[in-house]
Design goal:
Layout (H helix, E strand, L loop, with lengths): L18 H21 L8 E6 L10 E6 L37 H21 L10 H28 L1 H11 L23 H22 L5 H39 L4 H6 L5 H17 L7 H8 L20 E7 L5 E7 L4 H26 L34 H11 L3 H10 L30 E2 L2
Antiparallel strand pairs: 1-2, 1-5, 3-4
Helix pairs in contact: 1-3, 2-3, 2-4, 3-4, 3-6, 5-6, 5-8, 5-10, 6-10
The structure holds benzoyl coenzyme A.
Length: 474
């Protein structure tokens, strides 16, 4: 399963044996590069960046480090190895052989899922396009670019499936993936979060912690798919995804650490004094967290979804880590949901388990989000402060699903729109919060130097020191 780097498109799918497919992808490749040039990281295309590139999908080869100019990154097609004994792991066809081709009746639905997944990848690169100039260090700059090139590769992963298994429709969808753009008034990206601007690095860290983690859970669900090529693609994408969440987790950790240092130096927790010293007060960190978590919660879809039920029944999309469940058919269980009663209160209702799959996945996601919070709060506790970062309720500021448009407190208590409006600036980034955070965004480019609002990382990349020249700026 080593990767063929001789081909114009690196791959481990024996692309050379299918000339039509190879030609079609070689036709898409310059379109991708044009998109990268126009909407990928602005201005750093000739810099040498210390990046990892996959040279094989096994443990030894998937992370090979070296200096690369981003447009020369070897974007390619890498699937995990095929397990000839793999069986359908859930739904009505549990135990049957997995599919190497798509059954006709599921074509449209699978195409929709793959396009939705694929759409997020270039979207995130577009959202982060301007961040290079304001990186708090070149260590961070390198991490941004690593995330960006890998999101580009994840787009390739989905485009390969579209080209290889969906004929002309798939080729058209692949073109449209480069035509929709994040935040575009006429052709926006499909899912809400991917149209939100990311203008500052606090948002970038929140995005990589919370939104990339949605990616982890969606990819885990698709890695269970009966459509084996999709499952194998997502399994390999998950190995790369882990670094993206690491960037968010350690980024927020370093922001909190620096704030605590300033609080100690000044012996105060007064947000204004902390801001005057150039750090980010913890209530502002909480407000950014509230914004990005609530946006990411929408990405799981509605609490009750007949789409989700049929994805599960038909074996298209499972639960993350499906093997941990006892019952893989799940058509006799139910799930209790607390929903708005339409009169300012809540009501409990039982739903068939299959219809609640989005909520099952969202709940696993929230548990995973708590791990970072515990770590950040330990820092705060050790420094002797009573403040704690918390995850807002899954009901808070939702735009999709049963809680969409229902105003609640961050604890999930329904309130009136007036009450919400009156407290909004305590719960979500206000204009003045955003102006302050933007005022901190000034690029730092000397190796080892950090902006004043963030602590240095504990260690560098691939055993290199923190002051390594991770990006050689020309
Ligand atoms: N914004 O039945 P429902 C990642 C739509 S992130 C706008 O509840 P369903 C990454 C929905 O499409 C992972 N629209 O939805 C992270 C549906 O529309 P249609 C991305 C939304 O189908 C960082 C309608 O509402 N992967 O990889 O059960 C950087 C009815 O909704 C939203 C995937 O999303 C929203 N937030 O589930 C880079 C996996 N939510 O079909 C990358 C593939 C829902 O009626 N997608 N809608 O026109 C899916 O599995 C499903 O489409 C969803 C929704 C989970 C998104």
């Amino acid at each position: 399963m080593s990767i063929n780097y001789q081909d114009r498109i690196p791959n481990n799918v024996d692309l050379g044996s299918n000339r039509t497919l190879q030609r079609a992808l070689e036709h898409w490749q310059p379109e991708f590069l044009k998109w990268w040039e126009e909407l990928g990281p602005k201005d750093f295309q000739v810099a040498d960046v210390y990046l990892r590139t996959a040279t094989s999908v096994d443990a030894k080869g998937w992370a090979t480090y070296g200096y690369v100019r981003m447009p020369e990154y070897r974007w390619g097609i890498f699937l995990n190895e095929r397990d000839p004994n793999r069986r359908i792991g859930f739904g009505d066809s549990f135990g049957q052989e997995v599919w190497q081709q798509i059954p006709g009746e599921y074509r449209a639905t699978l195409r929709r899922l793959i396009v939705t997944q694929g759409d997020t990848e270039p979207a995130s690169v577009e959202q982060q396009r301007m961040l290079g100039h304001t990186a708090p260090s070149i260590y961070d700059l390198r991490n941004l670019f690593q995330v960006n090139v890998e999101e580009g590769r994840h787009l390739w992963a989905m485009v390969y499936l579209l080209h290889a298994y969906f004929g002309r429709d798939g080729r058209e969808e692949a073109e449209e993936l480069l035509e929709r753009h994040s935040g575009d008034a006429d052709k926006p990206r499909i899912l809400g979060t991917f149209n939100e601007p990311i203008r500052d690095w606090l948002s970038f860290f929140m995005f990589t912690y919370f939104t990339d983690r949605d990616g982890k859970f969606q990819l885990k669900s698709l890695a269970e798919s009966s459509f084996d090529p999709l499952a194998r693609t997502c399994q390999f994408m998950l190995t790369e995804e882990a670094h993206h969440m690491f960037v968010g987790d350690t980024g927020i950790n370093r922001v909190v650490k620096r704030t605590l240092e300033v609080m100690k130096e000044l012996n105060t927790d007064d947000p204004l004094a902390i801001r005057n010293a150039g750090a980010i007060d913890l209530p502002t960190v909480q407000r950014y967290l509230n914004f990005w978590l609530s946006s990411s919660l929408d990405l799981f879809g509605s609490e009750t979804s007949s789409n989700a039920a049929s994805y599960f029944a038909n074996g298209l999309k499972g639960r993350p880590d499906e093997a941990q469940y006892e019952d893989h058919i799940a058509n006799e269980q139910s799930y209790l949901l607390e929903l708005p009663d339409g009169q300012g209160g809540t009501k409990s209702e039982q739903f068939p388990m299959r219809n609640a799959m989005n909520e099952v996945t969202r709940s696993s996601y929230v548990r995973d989000c708590e791990i970072g919070l515990k770590r950040w709060n330990r820092l705060i506790e050790k420094a002797g402060h009573g403040f704690r970062l918390t995850l807002p309720s899954t009901r808070f500021r939702r735009n999709i699903g049963n809680w969409a448009g229902v105003p609640t407190t961050p604890e999930g208590q329904p309130i009136s729109a007036e009450q919400f409006g009156a407290q909004r600036s305590q719960w979500l980034p206000s204009e003045s919060d955003q102006a302050y955070i933007l005022s901190l965004m000034q690029g730092v480019s000397a190796p080892g130097k950090m902006a004043a609002w963030i602590a240095p990382p504990d260690r560098g990349i691939n055993n290199n020191p923190v002051d390594y020249e991770y990006v050689k700026l020309q």
